Amino acid sequence: MIGFDVLVGVCLGYVAILFAVAFAAEQRAQRAEVNWLRSPLIYTLSLSIYCTAWTFYGAVGYAVRSGLEFVTIYLGPTLVMIGWWWVVRKLVRIGRTQRITSIADLISSRYGKSNLLGVVVTVLAVVGTTPYIALQLQSVTLSFAVLAADEGTTLNPEDLQTTALIVAAGLAFFTILFGTRRLDTNERHPGVVTAIALEAAVKLIALLAVGIFVVWGVASGPADILARTEASRIAAWQPDGARWATLIFLAAAAFLCLPRMFQVMVVENADERHVAVASWAFPGYLFLMSLFVVPIAVVGLQTLPEGNPDLYVLTLPLALGEERLALLAFLGGFSSATSMVIVAAIALSTMVSNHIVMPIWLRAGDPGAVVSGDVRQVVMVSRRVSIGAILALGYLYFLFTGGTGALAAIGLIAFAGLAQVLPAMLGGIFWRGATRVGAAAGLILGFSVWAYTLFLPSFGGTFIMSETFLAQGPFGIAALRPQALLGMEGIDPLVHAVLWSILLNTAAFIVGSLFSFPRPLERLQGAQFVNVFEHSANPRGWSGGAAEAEDLLIMSQRILGSKEAQALFRTAAAVQGKSGDYADITPEFLETLERELASSVGAATAHAMISQIVGGSAVSMEDLLAVADETAQIMEYSLRLQEQSQELERTATQLREANEKLTALSIQKDAFLSQISHELRTPMTSIRAFSEILMAGSTQEAEQSRFSSIIHDEAKRLTRLLDDLLDLSVLENGQVTLNWQDADLHDILERAVAATTSMEGQPRLNVLRDPDAESIAFTTDADRLSQVFINLITNAQKYCTAEAPELRISVTQAGDGGGVHVDFVDNGAGIPRESEAVIFEKFSRLSDKSQAGGAGLGLAICREIMGKLGGSISYQPSEAGTAFRVILPQREAQAAE
Amino acid sequence: MSRPPQPPVYLERRSYRRRRLIDAIRLLPFLGFILFLLPLLAINGSDATGGSTAWGGLYLFAAWAGLIALSAGLVRWLSHFDDDEPEEGPPQ
């Protein structure tokens, strides 16, 4: 005897623990300390709200009535979770990427955010769940009554109703407190999830404790249980194949479609990897939950043959004097009931608020008042009111149906009703061709057939349908009898209803989809859902042409540059006769745009980008923009790189050239210096040597005079060399001042020839001239020019190898600004071809012959002078002998005329 | 096939294993469905008074446990691939 007060105290204490756990979890989640809260274990345990009080207590009763059939209710979810890779994984990913808040939201979003479908699914969910909530209330009150009766307190029906009311109110309070604590975009409730995970653990431990007590405490182990089973009422197993398969299917479908299951499985999922763990851990949980059902049933049948088998889990320990175990079992059942009600209320309130209340409020309200703060407040209030209303509805249902019979059957009926969502759901995530029309047709037809063949007949002729209606069909039409459509008699009513409703539902869904045409948003969402794994980024919702044009513009701007893109769009709009920035999305415009983009990013990419925006293909706007950004960045980057590399190349070439020049200059300088020192040293050496001899004083007079003349010659040579160097240096540095004056070419030549041929000691040179051609008047520096001529003539004198050297000086006037050509051609051997390039360089002497003649600066000086005078001097290799051509600028000559 | 194994071959082989592993995971529910329906065939085929709840239950729970173990093993194996662990093949 634990006493009634203790019982109530334990209940309140347990509830207090739940509140504390939920509160602590919320606090931790807000501080982002979510490590263990977000573990696969919590996820798996939260899935266990599938096991409600109906399964906690009812499974044993089910086993007593139908043997092993109870296990189908667990086998269906097992198959779904084992096959997680097919559906659950995809649902979770879709839920995450599309921010799905409920199963109604899933269906509505998939079919182009259709509010009609949202409402249909919501209504279906409310109709299917309310009786289920009533069932939980009933199980809690019944179990409470059983324990109270054991304590000697008999509760009358009014007390039971009061208990149910207290439980409903408490649950409403808890759900409102933790279910609508804040408006999270993810619709996640860490507090609630943690609390129900704790409850899941409690109910598993409770059932396992009762089971272990039964197998090892009452019976003497598994072998004994096997023997007792063989001897019991349920020893024979005669499964109805159709019912067996139908129940597995139904349980699997309900597992996916129940609003509360969708809530914990998809909406509350924190990490996709948890699904992989839950894929075996949750079947394991179900396995443990059902492992001891048959033993409890068998022992219960032996011990309490007259008792209610639905309460054996509670009554068996009581009957065997295990009050504490009974209390644990009660807490297990209490946990099962409360966790289911809490999550179902959250899921339903979300659906009701999002798909019924909010659309109405938004439509009725003043559009100006739609500020985010307002909406938040309204959503909060509507959620809270919805939770209260749903629990009130459940309580009322409990009040009016009251009796055990009507409620016990409701579990499978609710399953069948919610399974009607399955075709639209699976079609929506696997078939891009599924449309809103098809989904609506399937849902409405399936729901109607379910109501007609299963839900209304379940009242046994007391609600809407009369008994005669059931027996003979409407207006006596036998083919339309609710439980024997088209004369399909002798079939289990549940199998009959599931078969017809799901078949007709699926058929209507497929036919409706095939023969309707989806709206653009539906096609977009269809692609997003079906191909969720290819494109898992969050999509941005858009609809209508203007938005698409805007998207296109945004994308184009990132690729083409904003001014260019805007100009393109404005031009296109102008062509279409529109004012404003957005052109209509016509095929012509798209072609133009595609070409423009193709010029920047390549044809294939441009086509893909355009077709993905316009064709509603499954890629999110963010993805596209990212691609566009990336492309633009890459293009810009590669352009910059190209520029940089070109610049680098240019710089490198310049550097190379400069380096070559420097190297050449350095070589030249070295060569020049060594030449100079060589040229200076030779005369200096002889001067020093002969002056030392003279200083010795032992020389004869004849020798003295010879030595003095050598010293004099060498000194003269040195002077000449230094003069030449100075001259060249002055010319090269451009510091020379030219004495421009009118002159006659003939005079200058005459002076030059006279200067050279009159020199003593020079070889005789015959100079041939044409005085008539020479008489050209022009402006020049006559001294400088004659210096050039003298040099050329001297060279001829020095280097002409002929027996009778002669020099022909011919003057020609080239037309068309070609200037005056003065050619100096001798009859010598000429200059070797390999030396032609160097004759104008400093110190370039081709042979040592007549070394004393000069330092090899003559032609270098000539070139500098001609450059200063605006003309040129060049060697003419084609001529016989050595030929130099001096070109005098024509303009100067004309100016002088 | 005398070429020595090289990293690309290794990676392809790895991703090939992973795909076959996923195939196996996909096939599991079908295996489960067959396992859960088999006793029906046996019982209906025998045309006797029916099966035994005790032994039928033992079979169902054994098949169920086996399926769970298989699924757990495959998921664990898969997580080795997804964690990018260097070793190839099943964990020891």
Summarize the structure.
Chain A contains 36 helices and 8 strands. Chain A has 897 residues and is mainly alpha-helical.
Helix content of chain B: over 70%
Distance between the termini of chain A: 147 Å
Strand content of chain B: under 5%
Q: Structural class, from helix and strand content of chain B?
A: mainly alpha
The value of Rg of chain B in angstroms is 20 Å
One letter per element, helices H and strands E, the order of chain B comes to HEH
Report helical residue fraction of chain A. Answer: 55-70%
Second-tier CATH architecture of the largest domain in chain A: Up-down Bundle
Secondary-structure blueprint:
The complex is a heterodimer of chains A (897) and B (92).
Chain A: H1 4-30, H2 40-47, H3 53-56, H4 58-66, H5 72-82, H6 88-97, H7 103-110, H8 115-150, H9 157-179, H10 190-218, H11 222-231, E1 236-237, H12 241-257, H13 259-267, H14 273-291, H15 293-303, H16 312-319, H17 323-364, H18 372-401, H19 404-408, H20 410-418, H21 421-430, H22 436-455, H23 467-472, H24 493-514, H25 520-530, H26 544-560, H27 562-575, H28 587-601, H29 603-614, H30 621-696, H31 701-732, E2 741-744, H32 745-757, E3 766-769, H33 771-774, E4 777-780, H34 782-799, E5 806-814, E6 819-826, H35 858-868, E7 872-875, E8 883-888, H36 890-896
Parallel strand pairs in A: 3-5
Antiparallel strand pairs in A: 2-4, 5-6, 6-8, 7-8
Helix pairs in contact in A: 1-10, 2-10, 2-14, 4-15, 5-12, 5-14, 7-8, 8-9, 8-17, 8-18, 8-20, 8-22, 9-17, 9-18, 10-14, 10-15, 10-17, 11-15, 12-20, 12-24, 13-17, 15-16, 16-17, 17-18, 20-22, 21-22, 22-24, 26-27, 26-30, 28-29, 30-31, 31-35, 32-34, 34-35
Chain B: H1 7-46, E1 51-52, H2 53-82
Helix pairs in contact in B: 1-2
